[in-house]
Design a protein that fits this description.
Blueprint: E1 5-7, H1 31-42, E2 48-52, H2 61-73, E3 77-81, H3 92-101, E4 107-109, E5 114-117, E6 120-125, H4 136-163, E7 171-176, H5 188-196, E8 201-204, E9 218-220, E10 223-227, E11 238-239
Parallel strand pairs: 1-2, 2-3, 3-4, 6-7, 7-8, 8-10
Antiparallel strand pairs: 1-11, 5-6, 9-10
Length: 250
């Protein structure tokens, strides 16, 4: 039996900080326990779980260590990408050294590259949506930067098709932290990349509580969009294997 690939964004772990999440809704009460119990019920040691952003409230890697140790003890391989609250995120070399120094062997990062797993190739970046509190030039800069990072990842995915045996026709799947579109916004550079690279599935997080009213899920212009924020999934990782993923009702 093939291993299963799962996804869940926004666990917002805070083993070393006092950052209550219940301000986002009563469902966040005791959410780490719910997250752990659901993970243990769903994920086997041979499985892989993508966590696209807002992993830990730690302000740096030292403060985030307790959350990494928590993830390490859970079954499966964990592949982390950056969210807007992952202040601990630094250079890939420093993060890899952090993993090595702390014997964190089941955790890796998706950053300007791609991962071939169970017949699919997963690409991604943080993404971005316009922030009314930021200057226009800063918004434009961040949109261009994240689109460039996603394109690096998609190019790496295409390269894996050529270099990874058995993946010559593999589907490219995109995971982002920010949604590429909402009821009121569209990130055109990222949406253009999804169509240029013939992406059929895009997973995203970032949206919580009442904010889900602005989420766009389902098929739009040939791309199926999935909201995988932890609270939206009732803290239970969702399967990504082809023909096993589900569209949940908002």
């Amino acid at each position: 039996m093939s291993a299963i690939v799962h996804i869940i964004a926004d666990p917002h772990l805070g083993e070393s900080v006092d950052k209550p999440m219940r301000v986002f809704g009563s469902e966040w009460e005791d959410h780490v326990r719910k997250f752990k119990e659901a993970w243990l019920a769903q994920v086997a040691p041979e499985d892989t779980v993508f966590l696209p952003g807002d992993i830990s409230w730690g302000i740096d890697l030292n403060e985030a260590l307790a959350d990494f140790l928590f993830l390490e003890q859970l079954p499966g391989k964990k592949i982390l990408s950056k969210g807007n609250h992952d202040y601990w995120w630094t250079t890939l070399s420093k993060m890899q050294k952090f993993l090595d120094d702390n014997a964190l062997t089941t955790i890796s990062f998706l950053h300007n590259d791609a991962v071939a797993v169970e017949g699919m190739i997963v690409c991604g970046s943080k993404g971005y949506l316009w922030d009314a509190g930021e200057p226009v030039t800063q918004n434009e800069k961040l949109i261009r930067r994240e689109a460039a990072r996603l394109e690096l990842s998609l190019k790496a995915g295409r390269k894996l098709r050529k270099t990874c045996p058995g993946y010559e026709a593999a589907e490219l799947v995109v995971v982002l932290h920010y949604p590429p579109l909402t009821v009121g916004q569209r990130n055109e550079p990222i949406l253009s990349l999804l169509h240029e690279y013939d992406i059929k599935r895009c997973y995203f997080g970032h949206i919580h509580g009442p904010g889900k009213a602005a989420a766009v899920t389902g098929e739009v212009d040939g791309v199926s969009y999935f909201l995988v924020s932890a609270d939206f999934l009732s803290f239970c990782p969702q399967k990504m294997n082809k023909n096993s993923f589900l569209l949940r009702d908002l």
